[in-house]
Amino acid sequence: MPASPDLSERHVVLGVTGSIAAYKAAPLVRLLKKAGAAVRVLMTPDAERFVTPLTLGTLSEGEVLTDVFPENEDGSWTKHVTLGEWADLFVVAPATAQTIAKLAHGFCDSMLTATALSARCPLLVCPAMDREMYRHAATQDNLDRLREIGYEILPAAHGELASGLVGQGRMPEPGVILERVAEIVAGTDTNEGPSAPPLAGKTVLVTAGPTREPIDPVRVLTNPSTGTMGYALAKAAAGRGASVTLVTGPTSLSPPSGVEVVSVQTADEMNDAVQARRTGADYVFMAAAVADYTPTDPSPSKRKKTDEGLVLHLRRTPDILKTLGDHARPDQVLVGFALETDDALENARRKLKKKNLDWIAVNNPTEDGAGFGPTNRVTLLRHDGPSEELPLMPKAEVADALLDRVCAAQEERTS
Ligand code: CTP
């Protein structure tokens, strides 16, 4: 369990809306309070059907507000303005499709929406709704509009939904929201209005893990990739506001929250999944260790030992990244990875060119701390710039360093 972040002297307004996930607002308030934040809770009238103001008021140690014009008129109708000024961060969790639509279009029919309109601080929206509602073009358009305004969206997580469906739509867990709150607050010392994260509105496609190529129903050809690098990239990109799809071979890792996960086994399946999504992706990070060969004719039943030796016939798998490079959109950013044991830079530069990539991250798995473990030491090569050697660091930090550079170069290119 990571240490609780320090949010002392920070002011967080938590807006709770009418979703079944409203019950998770209670542990979220507790986590925020435990981290030292001062918390004020605003609820929409529908939210009160799911969790009581008494519960959230007790946990937050403050009055919970719902109406812009409260019945016991005490001049408090201007509270949306004062609260908007007071807040260092406004979190809407859970955020229903209805409230997202209202926020996107400037409605102010409740204390929550009116305060959001008055707020000068960053605003973090954590959607929660059923799969089809989340996927619906209207909701996605509204989320895009919020990103344009400068709000940050913490994408809904995958999993079982209240309807019984499985898919994207779950509110991110309170711990995940707290982590993002701490990151936003850490980077926000001034109260100057909403700031868009660098990948807001962008679509990022990441591949991770090994592939498994069947020899027969019980045997495979594979490699020791753990998927850590790709999962770290997917998490970091989602944290920066991107809409992320992770195409993953078999790993033992839990998928990062808020990321669409497509599970595959073989190189052919990975190729199909990636090519189907290639045109929509603004950035592609090909971190998977794709098998270069697969058995030509996998046996449908378990092979028996007959001879002393066995010759397997293998065929080349499609080079997924090369196909992406051959068909890349002019504004698309392609990032490859290369494992090289000899002439690393020379070989990597050759791959960069051959596959028409923007970047390649190369590492030597025989070096201490590099390769298939939790850390890596990579050198970044850019198609139009010099190489940069990064120090040995955990893969989560490699992911951040890589995103920093790739995003900065892209911003430069498009500005
Ligand atoms: N890659 C791919 N499809 C393949 C093989 C590799 O998309 N069939 C991608 C990897 O995900 C990686 C990059 O290509 O991002 C380089 O992979 P690597 O294994 O280092 O290089 P190869 O192209 O396979 O060349 P070689 O094995 O000869 O070094």
Q: How would you describe this structure to a colleague?
A:
β16, α12 (344-354) and β17 (359-363) form a beta-alpha-beta unit. α1 (25-34) runs parallel beside α2, α1 packs across α8 (174-186) and α3 crosses α5 (111-118). The protein folds into two domains: 11-189, Rossmann fold (3-Layer(aba) Sandwich), CATH 3.40.50; 203-414, 3-Layer(aba) Sandwich (Rossmann fold), CATH 3.40.50.10300. It contains 13 helices and 21 strands. The longest helix has 20 residues, at 395-414. With 415 residues, the protein is of the alpha/beta class. It has helices at 25-34, 53-60, 79-86, 97-104, 111-118, 131-135, 137-149, 174-186, 228-239, 267-277, 320-326, 344-354, 395-414, and strands at residues 11-16, 38-43, 89-95, 123-127, 152-153, 157-160, 166-170, 203-208, 213-216, 219-221, 243-248, 260-263, 283-286, 293-295, 314-316, 333-339, 359-363, 375-376, 379-382, 385-389, 393-394. Mean pLDDT is 91; it is low at 189-194. The strands form six sheets. Strands 12-11-8-13-16-17-19-20 form an eight-stranded mixed β-sheet, with helices on both faces. Strands 2-1-3-4-5 form a five-stranded parallel β-sheet, sandwiched between helices. A two-stranded antiparallel ribbon has the order 6-7. Helices cover 32% and strands 22% of the residues. The structure holds cytidine-5'-triphosphate. The site of cytidine-5'-triphosphate has 14 residues, from α11 and β16.
